[in-house]
Every structure is written in C-alpha cells, then in structure tokens.
Design goal:
About 45% of the residues lie in helices and about 20% in strands. By secondary structure, the chain is of the alpha/beta class. The protein has one domain: P-loop containing nucleotide triphosphate hydrolases (Rossmann fold, 3-Layer(aba) Sandwich).
Length: about 230
C-alpha cells in the first residue's frame, strides 16, 4: 500500500488527493528544471545536473567538460525544453560537431514538445506554429496564452530566426540568425578533429566569428563537451 501524501494548504497539513499531488508536481516542474526533467522522463537527477542548471541560471557563458555517460546531451535538451516553456518567443540554437548530430538533438526536443504528455501538462500553451517550418533543421512554436500577432510582436527582435535551429559546428548555417535565448554547442569536436590543429583552429574561429556574433543581449552560450 502506498504511503499517504500530505501537503500544506492555508497553513494546515492535509492529506492530498491524487489531483492535488499532480497539480503540485506540475507547479514544481515549472519552477525547477531539475524536477522538470524527473517529472517528464522519470529519471532521478544527479548532483552534477543541479550544478549545470545552477550555472546556467547564474551565468551567460558556460563551459562544461563531463565524462561519458554523464547525461550531458539529455541535460541540454531538458533545459531547452523547459526554457522554451517559459520563453516561447525567444530563439535558440543547437549545434554539434556535424549537422547530422545537431539534427538528432533537435529530433529529441521535437519529440518532447510534440508527444510527451507530461511536457504538455507543464507547458500546455507551447504549440508548434502552424504557419512556420517544423523540419529536421528548425522548429517554430507559438504561445497559446496570447494572440498570434502579440506573440510575433514579442519576438520581432529575432526577425525570422526559428524558435530552435540545428546546425553543424564550422558551417555557415547560423549566419544571419539572431539568438535571443539559449545557444548550445554540444560536442564541438569528434576524435578526429580533437587531434587536428587545423580543425581545432577552424572550430575556434567559427565560435568567435559566427556563433558568438549571432547572440543578442540576454542570450546564453553553453558549450558542453566530453573529456
């Protein structure tokens, strides 16, 4: 038999109904990206995941170097899904060592927004934009809490930049985009590039000349790689 769950209501400790427990979980998931990940995936977070989310909260430029199997890509996708729920009007980018890798990251994000029922409980107002592309390289969302015109007025600073765009490191796909939200570089190098001075230099040049130049005031840049 499951133990009863109690909550505080109007200063009193009362036994919670299943609906009250669900409402509490939804509200907590909206507040806390770490709990959000647990709520929609059922995975128990680790200490380094909390450190990651705290770093993003407190800093605009973040570099993380994690060992393999530390859940770095899922942490990035979880954060971006949560962030879009709070700021649907902002524009974001996911980049990786190749365009194919970036597309895979975007596919994971699309799956959450489109099909995860728990995500839809937490952020029911986030919907695919029926008038904009929803493809393997970009997705666009809208906010059901406001009119379509009002929503696009809020994001006019970003022009026609997608809600989330996927691109390979070193390519020209980002040129002209205006990122007002999260800009993520997940695995900027593979083993071949890591041992090539020429490829490493090319990646560094791309980061400063293309990637950083796409960021607008308030945007956050996150680079996460494997050690």
């Amino acid at each position: 038999m499951n133990n009863p769950v109690f909550i505080w209501q109007n200063g009193q400790r009362i036994k919670a109904t299943p609906q009250a427990v669900l409402e509490y979980q939804i509200k907590r998931a909206r507040r806390d990206p770490l709990y959000f990940g647990k709520f929609i995936f059922g995975h128990e977070p680790a200490t380094h995941h909390r450190e990651f989310f705290d770093a993003v909260k407190n800093h605009d430029r973040i570099l993380l170097v994690w060992p393999r199997e530390f859940g770095k890509t899922m942490s990035v996708i979880t954060l971006m899904a949560w962030y879009i729920g709070h700021f649907p009007h902002r524009t974001n980018v996911i980049t990786s060592v190749s365009s194919e890798q970036a597309k895979k990251r975007l596919a994971n994000l699309k799956e959450i927004i489109e099909k995860n029922p728990y995500y839809q409980l937490v952020f029911p107002w986030v919907k695919p934009d029926p008038q904009k592309p929803w493809t393997e390289t970009e997705i666009n969302v809208t906010d059901d809490r406001v009119s379509y015109t009002e929503f696009w007025n809020k994001r006019k600073e970003a022009g026609n930049t997608a809600s989330v765009y996927a691109a390979g490191v070193g390519g020209k796909g980002l040129v002209g985009n205006r990122i007002t939200g999260l800009a993520v570089v997940d695995d900027p190098h593979d083993e071949d590039a890591a041992f090539s001075p020429t490829k490493r230099e090319r990646g560094i040049t791309w980061y400063f000349r293309t990637f950083i130049n796409c960021l607008r005031p308030g945007a956050k840049a996150i680079v996460i790689t494997t050690r």
